[in-house]
Amino acid sequence: MLSGLFWLLSLGAWAQADSLLRQADRLLSYRAYGRAIDLYSQLLTEPGLTSMQRTAAQSNLAYAYRQAGDGVKAETAYREALASTASPDPQQLLLYAQTLASNGKFAEAQQQYERYLQIKATTPTRPGLSTTPNTQAGTPIGKKDATKYRLEYLALNTPNEEFSPAYYGDGLVYVAGKKGGAAIETMGSGGGAGYLDLFYVPNRSALGVADITTTDGTITKPAPDRNKRNGGMGRQIGGDAYTRPTANDSRTVGTFDAGIRISDGLGYDRRSETSKDLAKRFSESLNTRYHEGPASFTHDGSRIIFTRNNFNEGRSSKSTEGVNKLKLYTAQQQNGEWVDTEELPFNSDQYSVGHPTLSADDQLLFFSSDMPGGFGGTDLYVSRYVNGKWSRPTNLGNVINTKGNELFPFVDDAGNIYFASDGHRGLGGLDIFYATLTGTTVTGVDHLDAPINSTQDDFGLITNSARQSGYLSSNRRNGSDDIFRFVRESSLYGCRDLTLRLYDTQTDQPLDSVFVDVRVKGEGRADQQLVTDHDGQLRLCLEANNDFTFRSSRDGYISSMVGFSTRYLTDDQPSRLEIGLSKPTFVIDTLEATPLQPTINLNRSRVRGRVLGPNKQPIEGVLVTLKNECDGSSRSTTTGPDGKYIFEIAEGCDYTLSASKEKYGTNTNKIKRLPRKSKPKEVSADLPLLSVGDVFTLENIYYDLDRTSLRTDATRELEKLVATMRKYPSLIIEIRSHTDSRGDAAYNKQLSAARARSVANYIISKGIPARRVKSIGLGESQLVNNCTDGVICTEAEHQRNRRT
Q1: What gap in Å lies between CA 801 and CA 38, rounded to an integer?
Q2: Which of 202, 389, 390, 594 is the most buried (most CB within 10 A)?
Q3: In the predicted model, is pLDDT for residue 362 greater than 60?
């Protein structure tokens, strides 16, 4: 039902605030906490916010401060958000209690936690609630459902340990053997088979799969011929799940841009009997009788940074407590050998450093250490490569580090950091977490969904920037560490990032203040109206697996309707949609020459006619002007009582003929050029003029009983009115709608007003400015027959009264 008129002015402030709120929510969903805080803070200074908008902004501002690690401001924001509502959300109370506790206010935190338990006990469970604050019904701002992954148990695993893989060339370098002691600190004197070494699979695409854990948790075996058909990789056609990420994610096994093929020149063959046969010791020059690994490589593959016990050049050292600590070493590849092994400058005999990972530009080194001054057992640190040297390490701070242990960091090419921790709340043991890095600043920590994490130890994850696929380590099977491959089979988020750009089709310039009605196809979904910014843009986050329509309208432009679907989209790349709006064409009739009567003999061609009103009566005093389009010259005449005009015209030129008078519209026509050197012809045309107060009955604008929506037969009639309004740019119309006598008179007055508005909306959608259209509802006050209250009439007789 199109009963809603374009309440443009009254909705402007609300829509602008709503648009800003959605932009802030979108930034929050993508963990851009700093920018989200700025927008929410700006919003809360706006005087026109509704109570719902203000509560939503305050709640999400508090959440953003908490994720950004600013506990003091988060506490203030939570207190204000909870004070503004009589029915606090239990989840908000829980987050407030946790924030108070982290700020050291334990007594107050306990009170809020008890309040949370009381409210939670009386609140019915609602399915499908997001764990991220969601302020806009129907528009998710974060994960709607858990991200779905397929997990593959690799055939290279043995009863011993295999863990902490690293990308290198086309293959994987990982740690294997028998480990003892803690992950970051190694006890004992070393030697023998009881220690860990670096192993290498030159072609990770050839890795076989022992079994698969599907997204619903079912464990299945791969198809019998799967490994043969795909070279042991177990890849579905088009999946490209296991290569290093490329820009277009092709089905070609990826390589580093300037990488070194380790299998060429280092003696590694590519026998494919089993995945275990593919694995070789990585380098005899790096592997010693002590622990080696994990490792990381520069992106060109020329340098390695790896973990090893305090052992170099044949000598080992211990701390003052008699412990052989871990250190980081680096080596350069030269002619197929790893040479010039040396310690990094921040190593120490008194504490351990290990688990290295490099940033995309190789300028930042992240690692784990239990050096003094941290927050707990082991923390994550970063060192910068400056003037050929690694700088003094900096602790990444208490957003990421806890009183527990943070280990096994990995930084992808987009600057996201993954790490394992037993200090953040997880499913059990070590869990894998994710955070966004801005330089070396951590702006939020999130727990990854199962089956990435389990109730056992999960760590050592590596992946691409979109987390489409990768590898991780876990002891969830038999207690020993194994390597799994994962493939994401759903979107990372429950919504699709879409930017709309509205522009003028003639000038290609952006259009601000365009109203965009967003409609979700499906039951129970309400329309939403947004407004473009000064760049003509709108940024939305659309629910996955849905169909949408965007109806765009702006005063003086023809409305546009465009569809968009988020079905079958599994990537997380933002989308962009451009919608052009065009101004209506000014209608000018073209007058054709007519054959002369035999009795008329002309020396020159001419145009003649009369100016008439709606009643076909001639109009006196009309200024009729003829413009020659060849030279721009004009001639004018004023009609007499007979309303006649006459001009001579030259062959070979176009002309524009216009008739105008005060309190009348202007009628403009084109005269098509006559062929040069043709016999004289006559162009004859009577010019109609509309005056102020003229009334026209629109035929067939009828409505079904108690309905306001336009029928198909009505829109055909309205197209004629639209054409007339385009022809007369100064024409302003008043639309009058009526009802039959049935029903309450006051209700009929409202119903007729809604019917008039539906006609007005249709006309405006065709590009007629809203200021030229006025609508009025007269209810049952002007019946065209005797079908008044109490009189029995046929449906056809009542239909005559339901008119515009």
Answers
A1: 57
A2: 202
A3: yes
Type of residue numbered 294: P
Is residue 372 reached through a cis peptide bond, with omega within 30 degrees of 0 on the bond before it?
no
Q: Is the pLDDT of residue 184 over 50?
A: no
90-102 and 71-83 helices, crossing angle to 10°: 150
Per DSSP, 594 falls in state: B
Q: Which residue, 343, 342, 330, 334, is CA-closest to 304? A: 330
> What ranges in 30-50 are assigned the alpha helix state H?
33-43
| Residue 663 identity (one-letter amino acid) | K
- Is the separation of the CB atoms in 145 and 543 below 8 Å? no
Q: 329, 262, 265: which is closest to 295 by C-alpha?
A: 329
Mean pLDDT of 240-250: 34
Residue 605 phi/psi, 5-degree rounding, is -70, 155
Which whole number is the average pLDDT over 649-658? 89
Category of 98 on φ-ψ map: left (φ > 0), alpha (ψ -120 to 50) or beta? alpha
pLDDT in tens, 792-803: 888 888 888 888
Inter-residue contact 488 to 147 (CB < 8 Å): yes
Which H/E stretch holds residue 799? helix 795-801
Q: For 536-566, what is each residue's pLDDT tens digit? A: 888 887 877 778 889 888 888 888 888 888 7
Give residue-wise pLDDT tens across range 492-515.
Answer: 766 677 889 999 988 889 998 888
How far does the chain reach from its first CA to its final CA, in angstroms? 17
Tell me whether strands 337-343 and 326-334 are parallel, antiparallel or unpaired.
antiparallel
CB 596 within 8 A of CB 780: no
Token pair, residue 4, equals 């809603």
Running DSSP on this structure, what letter comes out for residue 669?
E
Contact residues for 413 (Cβ-Cβ < 8 A; gap 6+): 245, 360, 464, 465
Write out pLDDT tens, residues 571-606. Answer: 666 788 889 998 887 667 777 665 555 446 678 888
Q: What is the DSSP string of 405-425?
A: BEEEEEE-TTSEEEEEESSS-
Beta strand segments in 554-622, E: 560-565, 575-581, 589-591, 606-612
Amino acid letter at 15? A
Q: What phi and psi values does residue 166 have, to the nearest 5 degrees?
A: -140, 140
Cα distances from 487 to residues 5, 116, 147, 215, 236, in angstroms, run 49, 38, 11, 10, 11
Q: How many residues does the chain have?
A: 804
Given a cut of 80, whether residue 620 has pLDDT beyond it is: yes
Q: What are phi and psi of 67, to 5 degrees?
A: -65, -30
Backbone angles phi, psi at 701, to 5 degrees: -90, 80
CA distance 299 to 167: 9
